[in-house]
Amino acid sequence: MRLAHLILLVLLALTPLRAFAFVPPAQIKLTTQEWGGAAPADVQAVLDAVITVISPYIAQRKFGTILVQRSEDAPRAMYEKSADGEYIVQVQASGNHWARIAYQFSHEMCHLMSNYDLAPNNVSRQQWFEEALCEAFGLFTLERMAEAWAENPPYPNWKDYAPHLREYSQNNLQEAHRQLPKGMKLPAWYQQYREVLRADPYAKDRDLNEVVSNQILPILSATPQGWTAINYLNLGETSKDLSLETYLGDWLENSPPDLREPVSKIKALLLTSQ
């Protein structure tokens, strides 16, 4: 496990900061052809659009072919890869609900970026934070897609759909359960739910994750490349139970200097009493 972490850190450090021509960091291959009435080519166009808008935040990593299939119950990034070593991602949304499909897929792409497979099955007891981070990334991705589709949508007649992408994101942000109780700071809130989150990263149907995601989203969005820090999560010790302070400390230590500011701010936001 530790060797895998070190290898990935070396690869990230050796990755060039600039690419001379855009090459998608992942190739999407649909393994499900029934999408609730939506044409597979249209679903493919949405998923490809997600890859395009998140590519600046992938640290020039290459994820190869990602097999995408439809799930009847919940979206997920599978720990087990295909026989050819390909990532498998499941999306629950279907039909022409492009915003929801993009939202779910970008959340799962965040798990791939965050090295989820190096820290499986909540061994560290901090998987809930990764879930909150990926929730925030999904909302951020919808905002970037709205900007992109307003100018250059996958199809010309999808240009009018751009505002719906932003509306979907904003509606999620404003949901009542995502707001901190009036007068409560995040460290006090975290202490209240600490053991619940450690035990179940999806506690209360993810409502707790979504409270945290609302708090960390503006921190990462405030720095142009802040979201790139996702790629340096789960590179520390992940084979045993960890405190949140250790988990976030490892993230900070493994991040390159130019990405440490947002990570440090998130750590302080969760753990510094005011």
General description of the model:
The protein has 9 helices and 4 strands, in the order H-E-H-E-E-E-H-H-H-H-H-H-H. Strand 1, helix 2 and strand 2 form a beta-alpha-beta unit. Helix 2 crosses helix 3, helix 4 packs antiparallel against helix 5 and helix 7 crosses helix 9. The termini are far apart. The relative contact order is 0.12. The model has no long low-confidence stretch (mean pLDDT 93).
Summarize the structure.
This protein has helices spanning 2-14, 40-54, 98-113, 127-151, 162-173, 186-199, 207-221, 244-254, 260-271; strands at 26-30, 64-70, 76-77, 87-91.
List keywords for this structure.
single chain; 274 residues; alpha/beta; 4 strands
Strand content: 5-15%
Oligomer: single chain
| End-to-end C-alpha gap | 37 Å
Low-confidence segments, given as residue ranges, are none
- Helical residue percent? 40-55%
Shape: globular
Radius of gyration: 18 Å
Order of helices and strands: HEHEEEHHHHHHH
Task: Describe the main β-sheet briefly.
Answer: 4 strands, mixed
Q: What is the count of helical runs?
A: 9
Please give the order of strands in the largest beta sheet. Answer: 1-2-4-3
Structural classification? alpha/beta
Number of strands: 4
Rounded mean pLDDT is 93
Write the layout of secondary structure elements.
Blueprint: H1 2-14, E1 26-30, H2 40-54, E2 64-70, E3 76-77, E4 87-91, H3 98-113, H4 127-151, H5 162-173, H6 186-199, H7 207-221, H8 244-254, H9 260-271
Parallel strand pairs: 1-2, 2-4
Antiparallel strand pairs: 3-4
